[in-house]
Write a structure and sequence with these properties.
The complex is a heterodimer of chains A (335) and B (253). In chain A, 30% of the residues lie in helices and 23% in strands. Chain A contains 11 helices and 14 strands. In chain A, the strands form 3 sheets. A 6-stranded mixed β-sheet of chain A has the order 5-6-7-3-8-9, with helices on both faces. In chain A, strand 8 and strand 9 form a beta hairpin. Chain B is mostly helical and 253 residues long. Chain B has one domain. Chain B is 73% helix and 0% strand. Chain B has 10 helices and no strands. Classes of the chains: A alpha/beta (335), B mainly alpha (253). At the A-B interface, helix 1 and helix 3 of A face helix 1 and helix 5 of B.
Chain lengths: 335, 253
């Protein structure tokens, strides 16, 4: 009855690991949850899959994994749909929700069940428990696990077959700060091993730190996709503060620069020409307290591309009005 | 397929349900054996013929435990959302269903063997202690084989019913109410009782019988045992296929 240990998929073919989503559509009743979505995740890349709640991220991932049938289009891994993969757990590791455990099973039992299904040796369960720091609680029933432990157990399950491709849906949900810190290290570990990782997350800072690509979704449609360098092109922002920026604001407008006027009087100018802005301030005799280039912020880009749907209302500090200053837009509008 | 069966057997073994269902099977079988043995002893001492068929086929009474075990096969996966990792490991849904059926058949066979053994042990000890001669004629070998098969088929029937209903509570209530109450009422309901022989309960009764079932209304004629077995097998397979088609074809979201 004992199946021979199967070789792991990782490293068998360096070209493996490409995810291709082609014109994928899913319609639930009258609602198009995913609408003609196309993107590619390159082998060995870490790709953030971003979008507000209800954007269609989870539905897309479930279609990719064969759990939800597409209305049209296709989603493939290594050129095959998930159902056709000969050894799925050795090819793709997926964690979709943090509650897919039988409460009467221990974490170790849960993993050993899927080791058996994949023809992996039972000791692999102990190895991945060690990897995610759950060795001490591996023999406890999952009904006693905290949300953080459940997330870790889900992530342990993705590593069972040592797959080259990992698909993670909101792995940071419900994690406390310590868990977030652990997850950041986990992402770094996966990235350093050259795995293909597609991760949907609201923890944009965590994604930005390790991702080299991002796919941004809104209302089921692709908004932007590309490397972080490509996405950051043209998004550089120069921030200027000073006691009286009116003349500089006018000079910037005359010079063709656009940007926003902050409630605290600062100007955010859409350019990376720091020296040019400084020169304009100097030639117009404007005193500056701050002149700096703001680094690319995935969160800012995400909010601007998803029309701020994901962002709460901006609160005005008490007793402080906003400054007008056309053509600069006031903060709280589109950035 | 062997990996899948190992995985499914491990799933069943990893909780205590299998143990409690085995205990329930043993309890039903023991109770049935004691009742039929006492009746046999009384019949023998009263000079009436002993119904050896009934004495050695009481293990069929453990069917309700096998039904519950089968019902839990798929409904537990949906209740605890383990269907997601299960389908990630075995994406082919028909292969999963076949693997589950094979795994539950393995358990049902073990349960059935234990129940038959308990039935024989109690009956032989009881009758011997009361100086009732033992006899394994009167269709006993065939009856034991049918009791054994009916337990395995009842497990499959439960698995299919669970696949069809998907909701664990609904499947458990319906399954138990059907076996314990509805089945005994249906053969008295006008119009329905004409087709009772073809219901799962009617077919199973016919299969387990020695050609005659007491307590049935005069105008209800059960099928021949072999035909009843085939009809119950057809019900089990149909539920598995239809349940698999309906439940497993749905989106898992």
């Amino acid at each position: 009855m004992t199946a021979p240990d199967q070789p792991t998929a990782r490293g068998t073919n360096p070209a493996d690991g490409r995810i291709v989503v082609d014109n994928l559509t899913k319609v639930f009743g009258n609602q198009r949850a995913v609408d003609s979505l196309s993107f590619t995740v390159e082998p060995g890349s870490v790709t953030g899959f971003l979008g507000p709640n209800g954007a269609g991220k989870t539905t897309t991932l479930r279609m990719l994994l064969g759990l939800v049938r597409p209305s049209s289009g296709s989603a493939t891994i290594n050129g095959m749909n998930y159902e056709s993969l000969p050894r799925p757990l050795q090819t793709v590791g997926a964690a979709l929700e943090a509650s897919s455990f039988h409460p009467a099973h221990t974490g170790r039992q849960h993993l050993r069940i899927y080791c058996a299904a994949a023809g992996l040796p039972a000791r692999r369960a102990d190895e991945v428990l060690e990897l995610v720091g759950l060795s001490q609680v591996g023999r406890k029933k999952t009904k006693g696990y905290s949300m953080g432990m459940r997330q870790r157990l889900g992530l342990a399950g993705t590593l069972l077959g040592d797959p080259k491709v990992l698909i993670l849906d909101e792995p940071a949900n419900g994690l406390d700060p310590e868990g977030i810190r652990w997850l950041r290290g986990f992402f770094r570990h996966l990235a350093s091993e050259g795995r293909t990782v597609l991760v949907s997350s609201h923890q944009l800072a965590e994604v930005q730190e390790v991702a080299d690509r991002a796919v941004i979704l809104n209302r089921g449609k692709l908004v932007r996709a590309g490397t972080l360098d490509e996405l950051s092109a043209g998004t550089a922002t120069t921030v200027v503060r000073g006691p009286a920026l009116g003349p500089l604001q006018q000079a910037l407008t005359d010079a063709g620069f656009g940007g926003t006027s902050e409630p605290d009087g600062a100007l955010r100018i859409r350019t990376d020409q720091l020296a040019r802005v400084g020169h304009l301030a100097f030639t117009h005799n404007v005193e500056l307290h701050e002149l700096r280039l703001e680094e690319f912020d995935l969160e800012q880009l995400f909010f601007s591309l998803t029309e701020g749907e994901h962002q709460g209302a901006e609160l005005d500090p008490p007793g402080r009005g906003r400054r007008a200053g056309l053509p600069y837009q006031q903060q709280g509008g589109a950035r | 397929m062997i990996n899948l069966i190992r995985s499914e057997v491990l799933k069943i073994r990893s909780t205590q349900v299998w143990f409690w269902m085995l205990l329930l099977s043993a309890a039903f079988t023991s109770l049935g054996s004691i009742v039929t043995s006492v009746t046999a002893v009384n019949d023998y001492h009263d000079g009436n013929p002993v119904n050896y068929y009934d004495v050695f086929t009481t293990s069929q009474g453990a069917g309700i435990a096998l039904l519950v075990l089968g019902l839990l096969g798929l409904t537990t996966e949906f209740r605890h959302k383990t269907i997601t990792p299960t389908l990630l490991a075995t994406p082919n849904r028909w292969q999963l269903l076949a693997g589950k059926a094979a795994s539950y058949a393995v358990f049902a066979i073990v349960y059935a063997l234990i129940c038959v053994a308990i039935n024989f042990a109690i009956a032989i000890i009881w009758l011997s202690a009361e100086n009732v001669p033992l006899s394994f004629g009167h269709g006993v070998p065939g009856g034991v084989a049918k009791a054994f098969l009916s337990l395995v088929l009842t497990g499959m029937f439960g698995l299919g019913l669970g696949a069809l209903l998907r909701n664990q509570a609904a499947a458990m209530v319906f399954g138990i109410v059907y076996i314990a109450i509805l089945d005994n009422i249906l053969n008295f309901v006008p119009w329905i009782r004409k087709g009772y022989a073809y219901t799962p309960g009617g077919a199973l009764k016919a299969f387990n019988s020695n050609g005659h079932v007491e307590g049935m209304p005069g105008d209800v004629h059960l099928l021949a045992p072999a035909v009843g077995g085939l009809v119950f097998l057809a019900w089990s397979l149909a539920l598995l296929v239809i349940g698999g088609r309906i439940s497993l074809s749905r989106d898992i979201s």
